[in-house]
Amino acid sequence: QVQLVESGGGLVQAGESLRLSCAASGSTRGIDVIGWYRQAPGKQRELVAAISSGGSTNYADFVKGRFTISRDNAKTTVSLQMNSLKPDDTAVYYCNAKRYTPTTHYDYWGQGTQVTVSS
User: Greater confidence, 81 or 28?
Assistant: First the structure.
């Protein structure tokens, strides 16, 4: 099992920055990909950014050039630096960890942290 705890959400104005952090504990050695999803009211949860155990990153088009995902050397903390925030970025942000097996994969989720961007 993997436990994920997010922190860093809050209320900011458009154009400002926030940094989210996710601390992973438990069976962290088995994590293949860790990243961030978000869900706005009335919308589906969507990928924001992710980083693999090898360091490869993947970003949603709507955050490219504004958000940066990073991970500490111990691979137990992943951060999301969010710059130039827009009101459309308002959502609950969830940390997600994935473990892949030859036949399936397992998803682990944090409790979420609210990000609100005012115009």
Answer: 81
Cβ burial of 78 (10 Å; 0-12, 13-18, 19+) is buried
Taking the C-alpha atoms of residue 46 and residue 27, their distance in angstroms, rounded to an integer, is 25
First and final C-alpha spacing in the chain: 40
31 closest CA partner among 52, 16, 10, 5? 52
pLDDT of residue 90: 98
Closest by CA position to 61, among listed 48, 51, 52? 48
Pairing relation of β-strands 10-13 and 113-118?
parallel
> What CA–CA distance (Å, rounded) separates 21 from 72?
11
Q: What are phi and psi of 18, to 5 degrees?
A: -145, 155
- Give residue 99's identity as a one-letter amino acid code: R
pLDDT tens-digit map of 22-46: 999 998 888 999 999 999 999 999 9
